[in-house]
Design brief:
Length: 210
């Protein structure tokens, strides 16, 4: 009986070891991310993820400083190169939703809900409103989805929730313009990366950058 128990225990250990050996570090890391958030305080997508960032547009990367400004439920992330503000990300943070309102010269009305509480990763939702560039506004819709994933930033793997918004903007000519927005949210650390199709990407900058 004792020999059988030892053999069984060895088999279990071997099985578990095999599971870990067959799992990549990234997949193990992603398993640490919860798929359910009942309130904003458990996710905190509105916090400042870092103060040094890179702003990438059309193959050009610019080191920038990043700061956070909040007025009531409106949260802005300012991306600055020296004294010049290159871009402003605008969000709204409420007890029920975290929304993307647009950039400096771009507006979504109403703001697109990136997160809705209670939030369950894997569920899909939709949005309808207008997309505006300056004074030019067009009707738009979006289908949103989320998943747990890992993303490599500044040489390190980060377990995140990726929220993707597939936007369709109606045009006067009858053809629709399509665009994809992506937000990588690391729980309790904010939006560690965002990618706005046909616009810019923001991600962490190297240590020591502005």
């Amino acid at each position: 009986m004792k020999t059988a128990s030892i053999a069984f225990g060895s088999a279990v250990v071997g099985l578990l070891a095999g599971c870990f050996l067959n799992s990549s570090p990234a997949s193990i890391l992603s398993q640490e991310v919860s798929k359910s958030y009942t309130t904003a305080s458990l996710l905190q997508p509105d916090v400042l993820p870092y103060t040094s960032a890179r702003l990438v547009a059309f193959g050009t990367s610019v080191p920038v400083g990043m700061s956070r400004v909040q007025k009531l439920d409106k949260v802005s992330f300012n991306l600055n190169a020296g004294v010049e503000t290159l871009e402003v990300e605008r969000y709204e943070n409420t007890p029920t939703e975290f929304r993307f309102a647009g950039l400096s010269d771009e507006t979504f009305v109403p703001p697109i809900p990136i997160v809705r509480y209670p939030f369950t990763v894997g569920k899909a939702w939709s949005w309808a409103g207008t997309a505006g560039l300056g004074s030019n506004e067009k009707e738009a819709t979006a289908e949103l989805k989320s998943e747990v994933t890992t993303v490599k930033l500044a040489g390190e793997d980060h377990a995140c929730i990726l929220v993707q918004a597939n936007i369709v903007v109606k045009t006067d000519g009858g053809t629709n313009n399509k665009r994809t927005l992506k937000f990588w949210i690391e729980p309790m650390k904010g939006i560690v990366k965002r990618e706005l199709g046909f616009s810019t990407t923001r991600e962490p900058g190297p240590v020591g950058s502005p």
